[in-house]
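During the second year of the project, the team shifted from modelling isolated chains to modelling whole assemblies. The rationale, set out in the original proposal, was that interfaces cannot be judged from single-chain predictions alone. As a representative example for this report, we include one of the complexes processed in the last quarter. Its constituent sequences, exactly as entered into the pipeline, are reproduced here:
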Amino acid sequence: MPILEVENLSVSFKQYTGLKQKTHKVISSLNVTLEAGEILAVVGASGSGKSLLAHAILGILPRNASICGVIKYAGEELTPDRQTVLRGKEIALVPQSVNFLDPLMRVGSQVRTSVKNGDAVSVQREVFERYHLRQEVEKMYPFQLSGGMARRTLLSTAMVSGAKVIIADEPTPGLDPDVIKEALNNFREVADNGCAVMLITHDIESALNIADKIAVFYAGTTVEVAPVENFKGHGEEIRHPYSKALWRALPQNDFIPIPGSQPHPSSLPAGCLFAPRCVMATPECRQVQPEMRKLRGGMVRCIHAT
Amino acid sequence: MRKYIGGKLGLFLLLKGLRMATLLFAICLISFLLIKNSPIDPIQAYIGADMLKVGPEQREKIAEYWGVDQPVMVQFLNWGSALLTGDLGTSMIFRRPVIDIIGERFLNSLALMISAWVLSGMIGFAMGVVAAMKKGTWIDRIIKWYCFTLASTPTFWMGLLILIVFAVWLKWFPFGMGVPAGVLAENVTMVDRINHLILPAITLSIVGVANVALHTRQKLIDVLASDYVLFARARGEQGFVLFWRHGLRNVALPAITLQFAAFSELFGGAVLTEQVFSYPGLGQATVEAGLRGDVPLLLGLVIFSTIFVFVGNLLADLSYRLLDPRMREGRRYDFKPQIKK
Amino acid sequence: MISSLKLKNKDNHKQLPSNRKKRTLFIILISIIFLVIVILGGVLIDEGRIVTNLNDRNAPPSLDHLFGTDWLGRDMFTRTLMGLSLSIGVGLIGAIGSASIALFLGMAAATMGKMADRLISWLIDLFLSVPHLVTLILIAFTLGGGFKGIVIGLALTHWPSLARVIRAEVMQVRSAEYVQVSQKMGKSQWWIALHHILPHIAPQLLIGFMLLFPHVILHEAAVTFLGLGLSPHEPAIGIILSESMKYLSSGMWWLAFFPGLCLLIIVRTFDQIGENIRLLIDPNRAQD
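Output from the structure prediction step:
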């Protein structure tokens, strides 16, 4: 049984631009599932609303956001009340950067506040040792950390909580390759110990190295969920034209960029969201948005996929 | 490391001191020239109502004593060099050295200003915090409305209202004066003094909360929308714990700084409140000096208030340097990189 | 007011966004009408109501005398109205003076090179380093008090913050592409100032001016209250309040209460207009 299921999730925002009020649908009918012991990479271009998926699961969206759809944790619906109880305890977030640490609090204390069971100090020291953070690091303020140290500190906050689901939101931006590799290996290790990891990233290459499943995210929704093995060769086994294009845009493949750009949430096309940029698009594609359907052990949102 | 930071602080203080010196010099010169060119005859101001009884000879003697017949720049140099030795001249209305009067009045004003400063700071901070935590609710709207209205309230009118309610109607407190009228100075008790201090202090605090409250509110709203609070919420923190751990430490410092930087308004407020409550402080002395043309006292007060404002700004800067770890501990520690590249 | 509007909009989808704009304009309009009525009232009101009338002294507020009468039997409502109109007038002159100084120094700091910029920023520091009220007392004292003293004092003390805003705005527009292009096309400095810079800073100047106003009025009333401003023969609010102090202990609260309250309302109205204009012109900065 999957530990986390997201069914038909939509997130929209009310925003005031000047004196006008607008509603933007940033995530629409999104579906993903997450199993214990596996890493699911949610991959998509920046600005596609991936972070909001993490915030929606944790129930920490801003006040002017409204969501619909169902999120289930361990088979039971994740209501706002349950989210309040579970976040930081069963579900933990690993954020993007050092800016997510309180600038005026020593990092050791910040890690200790995440400890839910046992002696906070010893748990924190243990995890720092595991991630090769020297003891004086706990006395430092976030601005004193190097990129790698910040990375490991953020991971520590999730580790000490004893959470079963870890959502990592762009955990590797602007780091050098060694640090990225180390960070990703840490996640693999965590998953191998029985946690479920959702890795939200725009870095498809790194994701492919460690993930078990890839969910491809486009303009606020998933267009495909596929086992990582499908991403090989010229992408023949990949189901959705966008995922294919993403794969082929990688430098070590054909290195062909996808023409056009992702639509802004305020001006989404009527039918399939990818239709305007798709080489396979037919008039039908522009009618209604296709439903997610099962195909060869994965899921796809395309009427032409085979 | 420590030594280096100490050096930086020393340099900072030196630069601040230099800036202060140039500003102070300019202010002395400008106010001196302004006052010398005023239509008020300092001799007349000195003699006051006895003007008709004074003969021309006596008049000249007084003029010589004050040095009023010399060129303006010579007068300025005389006054300035006396100033450097700490001699601010003799007050014309009190017939005592200006420095003594300022010292004595400052103690009175200090009691008033400190109590108002602390009270308004704490109440304003609490109001700002409540408004920000409850942003958009009726309580936030009430606090905001109240602060904006306060900002439009004449300080002296607020004083009059408080006087009417507490001194006239309820008769809880005496009607004005720093000490009871007709009582010798040595017989004035601490209780008397405090009794006369409460109403002016309350007035000054009520008016002072608006700025801190609105600033704290905005700052806390920003903090609550920050990434680190989002992450704290993701870790299950909420409500009071969240505020205590992350909100307080991030808004307290700007609020303290703001309070120090508001010494100028505090002094202005004290001038008005002291006048309403006939409280014998610096503010009242300023008004008296202005009304009765007491040139040495007025000049002395201008200089003193400038120093007062400067000290406030300096404390604001220092509190940042000493309390904010980003300023205090400099950049990163020296450490050997653990990951070899 | 504005935040309540926002909340309503959140809950009620049917309300059109343009309503917010309309309401903001409406608030501005009402406030202006209110101010005009007060000014006209002060100018046009029958002066017969403030002649000494010893039969009707020290009367508490009644239908006949809304704000009561004073120890000479003068109608306090009439005195207050005249005082407000005088305050607005003095405030207007002071604020125009201050805004002009701010405009001049702000433009000079931004366009006349590094030395001018440094000099002006030093000047701003100079003015901010003495408490406002003390500067005002000093200037009023130098000029011998009275109308001239207070107006010059007000004009000379309120410009620093607006000058900073204008300096920043001018700096920003000067680096804008269209100004650079105009410069390359050989347009004169004056042409650029008139056609590019002035229109760009006009809204900021207007907002700054409106927000200066309340401070100027309050300071005028304060200095007059202290006895260093307008002469005791003028029907100013500061004079009314300082006179009332002698009679407060005998319980004549209305002498102080109503005039001060009216001053507060006037100042608040100006503030409202300023904030609402800002909301119209510069919505992002005005949002909380």
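Residues 331-341 of chain B have pLDDT under 50 and may be disordered. Chain B touches chain C through 56 residues (CB under 8 Å).
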